[in-house]
Design a protein that fits this description.
The complex is a heterodimer of chains A (about 130) and B (about 350). Chain A has five helices and five strands, in the order E-H-E-H-E-H-E-H-E-H. Chain A has about 130 residues and is an alpha/beta fold. In chain A, helix 1 links the parallel strand 1 and strand 2. The longest helix of chain B is centred in the last third of the chain and has 28 residues. In chain B, about 40% of the residues are buried. Classes of the chains: A alpha/beta (about 130), B alpha/beta (about 350). Strand 2 of chain A pairs parallel with strand 3 of chain B, so a sheet runs across the interface.
Chain lengths: ~130, ~350
Amino acid sequence: MTEKKIRVLVAKPGLDGHDRGAKVVARALRDAGMEVIYTGLRQTPEMIAEAALQEDVDVVGLSILSGAHMALAPRILELLRANGQENVKVFIGGIIPDDDMPKLKEMGITGIYGPGASTEEIIRDIREAVKS
Amino acid sequence: MQTKQILEGSRLALSRLLTQVENDSAEGRRMLAELFPHTGRAHLIGVTGAPGTGKSSLVNQLTLHYRRTSQSKVAIIAVDPSSPFTGGAVLGDRVRMRDLSGDEGVFIRSMASRGSVGGLAQKTAAFVQVFDAAGYDIVIIETVGAGQSEVDIARLAHTTLVVEAPGLGDDIQAIKAGILEIADVLVINKADRPGVENTERALRTTLELAHPTKRVILHHGRKMNVSSGMQSETNLWIPPILKTVATEGTGIPELAEAIARHKSHLHQSGDWSARDRARLKSELDAVLQEELMSRYLSGSHQEAYEQALEKVTHREWSPYEAVRALLNGKLTDHENTTTTPL
């Protein structure tokens, strides 16, 4: 009853309206025993950072299909740090060009998943990242 | 972690403390103890009702209203169910509360029920204490989408809203005891939908059935020391029925007004302190129960407990007989325990 649960915020920043992927991931994480806070579509970086703060999450999972990841990701990382939540691990799922992946990793994104990534892989990586 | 940070309004410290409290850590317990003298000021509003009646949207609108019309800081605890199989949860109440983001005077925390039944999580009452101490004037507790028996919220909150919607239950559902009886304010949300008159009529009938005893007792109870008939009337609280359309904000000022009236009723009638006492009693009882149990099992009784469980599993003892044997320390002496019931 008192074990530490992994808390994950699943958010969709930006303006595209496709949340199927985010919902599939949210459900898979739930089935892996995590507590998933789902915030829905069209979140601003400010809204995401605020929710992460109030919910004291270990992980933020961003679903980005709009191509705006190079603008959204650094902004969210910056806001998390400003709130004192530099320990929160940020994952991205969506359509990310290969060229951008190393840049995002360098900024501090922990994991990036494109179409076809397995939920098992995501779950394993989250558990690993939270442990360290 | 310092209590000072909480009292001074650090949101990061507050959020981290809630996690400590939820996980029942030693740190969390220490902080709760230190913060406890600072509690007792917030107005606790419970919001319950069946899934899909629009509780989250209503909480969103009500909070917006409070923030527009007053200086009150509002905390929201939104409880959603944990999966009984995996222990995981998807907590989705924030989806309906996006209007509240960016307001420093509002703090929303989602909470998984973590195996508790009754519509709340085990640590919800402790969360309330933390927010109360942190200076939130209003704490809104949104329960798990509740059916007919999830009535724990009435013990925790000062004012309990029960949210209904047209077309969800027929008249028989409304007559059933339980959730309707705990309502201080009844809300028919989605009141722009067809069938709202039927819902209202059913609720009104039920209220008349559900509350007669309460009225009589209070009435006669007050007769002793109240001189005028008018005053005794003010000591009755008959739950008002309000109609809202939460997605459009319709009926929200009236709802806030009814909640405020209930609050002043509680103060005038003395029910505020009575409810406070009842709430703290149930918290004390819960902690005592938990502590006695864990103390009992952490002693040398673990083996006896396992033996007793074995006997109960084989239908040799009933649970009552088993407990009796355990508490008397007579685990092997079965004959002496069968004749007298517990």
